[in-house]
Amino acid sequence: MQTQTPYPAAIGRNIANEMAEHARERGEGLTFKDYKRLGFTDAQIIRYSDEAAAIYARRAMRRVA
Predict the structure, then answer these.
(1) Which domain of life is it from (predicted)?
(2) In this predicted structure, what is the pLDDT of residue 62?
């Protein structure tokens, strides 16, 4: 039996997916400054930008095809 905790469970973020979604919503790739304005940190942008670009490209190809 589980006991109730006063705090809800942590929800993990898929930062690369979030970055790709922002780019998809705008219809174009975003720059470093754009991501900074959206609230991403330098470390997040550097770490996840390649993965976000790949996600964005896959979604753009599906939309065209």
Answers:
(1) Bacteria
(2) 63
**Distance between CA atoms of residues 10 and 1, nearest Å:** 20
Is 1 inside any structural domain? Answer: no
Up-side HSE of residue 25: CA atoms within 13 Å toward CB?
8
For residue 58, is it within any domain?
Answer: yes
Distance CA 23, CA 19 (A): 6
pTM of the model: 0.74
Residue 38 inside a domain? The answer is yes
Q: What residues contact residue 20 under an 8 Å CB cut-off, 6+ apart?
A: 52, 53, 55, 56, 59
